[in-house]
Specification:
Blueprint (H helix, E strand, L loop, with lengths): L1 H5 L2 H26 L9 H17 L4 H23 L6 H10 L1 H7 L2 H16 L1 H10 L2 H20 L4 E3 L2 E4 H24 L4 E2 H11 L1 H12 L7 H26 L1 H27 L8 E2 L9 H37 L4 H10 L6 H27 L5 H20 L3
Antiparallel strand pairs: 1-2, 3-4
Helix pairs in contact: 2-3, 2-6, 2-7, 3-4, 3-6, 4-5, 9-10, 10-11, 10-15, 10-16, 11-12, 11-13, 12-13, 12-17, 13-14, 13-16, 13-18, 14-17, 15-16, 15-17, 16-17, 17-18
Length: 421
Amino acid sequence: MELYSAIPPLLVQFLLTVAFAFVVGLEFRSYHHANDYKLHFGSTRTFVLIGILGFILYTMDPSRLLFALGLLLLGMLLLVFYWRLSAIKQFSLFSTIFLLLIYLIGPITSLFPNWFLVLFIVVLILILSEKSVIHRFSDQLANEEIATLAKFFIIAGVILPLLPDQIIAPMLPVTYYRVWLAVIIVSGFSYLSYLVNSYFFKSRSLLITGLLGGLYSSTAATVVIGRRAHGLDSLSVRKVSSALIMATTMMYIRLLAIIFMFDRSVALQLLTPFIIIIFISLLIVIALITVRNNEPDLHDITEVKHPLELSTAILFALLFMLFAFVTSYVTTQYGGHGLKSLAIVVGLTDIDPFILSLLSGKFNVPDSAIVSAIILASGSNNLLKAAYSVALARNRSVLFAAGWLIFLFFISIVYAYEYAW
């Protein structure tokens, strides 16, 4: 460190500029050879000279006028180069824009921290070396995905900053900001699951359906798997049950991650029971899928629809406020015991808005009551999923998983009533 600090900063910046311009120049040369381009603007040495030019002009003139003139001169030379390309029917601006970015390496070295400089160079190299991957991805990306991403930006980047962080009403002790923040977090998990489903696992096994579906909604994943299991015989019990248990396991992982974002102290109290459930459930899944048997491979080809509809977000927000109102009334009238009873009932519906409203509101109950309510709601939701799986499959392939879900329900009740308080 002493040797490094003894080196003049200007020398370090100059050497970094030369080194990174040289490395990118080598990759650019390989890019041109790989694509068999006959006409290109200079070589690796040209890249180094452009990088040095930008660094010197930026450093020697504090007014940056010389740097601007150099950028203008380089732009004119690149314009002439582009005219030459257009004469041979090549109309790409890629090379010209790329060389302008090389000119910026010097100022970036002087102004930005080293991590940003490295990130900048890595992005340039990836753009050059992964051309085929980028083209395949852009070809596969459906047009509606752009609209979906725009909806997420609207939900997260436009609506959220406009909402005040103040209590909505005395009987609705949550803020506008927290309501929409919950919408964004849940939508983000759903959108992640959708992207992975759509672009990495188009033809997926039931286990993958349980894993990714549980990241979105374990109840919805249970319904899909239960319907797929209908008509199958008892030979499929291991694969069907492992998928159902995996969906619920992902529910606990997702809930734990979301709760950490909202209330770290509550998340820490939930960490032990949730981790135990997750660990044992994963062991069961591993045991089910590793035992050798003659079960056929089961695949789910259900079309996955993107979850980022504004109407869905608004519905979630309304449910969030409804549960906040009901929770406020119950805790005011009946205290923590009433909250536990409410959690069991709510577990038979959608638990995400209830849990998030519980974490976001100002209720007159201790954290231990909130922990109990979350455990009871998740356990009651397991009972609902067990009923769904049995009713939809109507065969023995789901009985093992249903038994495990019912067991989790009873364990949740025992823990919440005997140990949490």
